[in-house]
Design goal:
about 230 residues, about 50% helix, alpha/beta, Rossmann fold
Length: about 230
């Protein structure tokens, strides 16, 4: 919108074309014709949930997905609930296999809601069978790279036999790359896959998918640029 208003203000001769292009883009994003291919790019390679393999020592990392205020209470975002359920389910399966398992909740308070994602999610995973002694809260990270960086500080130089990362399909590629930057070989466990249907009239869901996909594509590009500049 800022770009639209800037172009509209300074390119007076092209105002009609700017309005037409903006309307077409908004329609394409809102109806799914642009949202779907962008979402496909973000989720490519992670469209299915593949069961990871457990080792005698296994660490599961749940990537934070934000919080929302509902009825005056701070709760996990809608996208975070499948991640929480998947992480707790995976932990139970890990324990049933006889392995030594622990779950790291990774997420600070990037939205400035007054509580870290890790602290907000903790009661939910505890209620789903995660033992308090096996739960670790990493509540300082503000982005995906810091998630991996702070988890590395918890694990130290001695990597566990298995490291499993739990997050949504659209966020998985960037998450895996971040952990690989610290020498890990994480196993991805996709908690949920977003779908986008094509419509004639704009839908909020399509606009939301467009924003998420753009965020991930830009974030992944920035990650690689930062790595190339040796800033990561």
């Amino acid at each position: 919108m800022l770009l639209f208003f800037a172009l509209f203000a300074f390119c007076k001769r092209l105002r009609a074309a700017i309005v037409i292009v903006t309307v077409l883009l908004a329609w394409g994003f809102g109806t799914g014709w642009l949202a779907r291919p962008m979402l496909d790019i973000a989720q490519r390679g992670y469209e299915k949930t593949i069961m990871p393999s457990f080792a005698p020592k296994t660490t599961i990392v749940l990537m934070g997905g934000g919080t929302d205020r509902r009825h005056g209470e701070l709760v996990p975002k809608r996208d975070s609930m499948p991640r929480i359920a998947a992480a707790a389910r995976l932990y139970r399966q890990c324990r049933e296999s006889g392995a030594s398992c622990r779950l790291i909740l990774s997420g600070g308070d990037p939205q400035h809601h007054g509580q870290a994602e890790a602290d907000n999610y903790a009661p939910y995973v505890l209620a789903q069978g995660v033992a308090p002694a096996d739960l670790i809260r990493e509540n300082k990270s503000l982005n995906t790279y810091e998630n991996a960086q702070n988890v590395m500080r918890i694990l130290g130089n001695a990597h566990d036999n298995a490291l499993i990362v739990v997050t949504s399909a659209y966020h998985m590629r960037r998450s895996v790359r971040a952990f690989e930057a610290f020498g890990y070989e994480p196993q991805p466990y996709v908690s949920d896959v977003r779908e986008n249907r094509l419509t004639v009239l704009p839908r909020f869901r399509s606009l939301e998918n467009s924003e998420l996909a753009l965020h991930e594509v830009v974030g992944l590009a920035r990650f690689h640029v930062w790595r190339w500049l040796h800033l990561y």
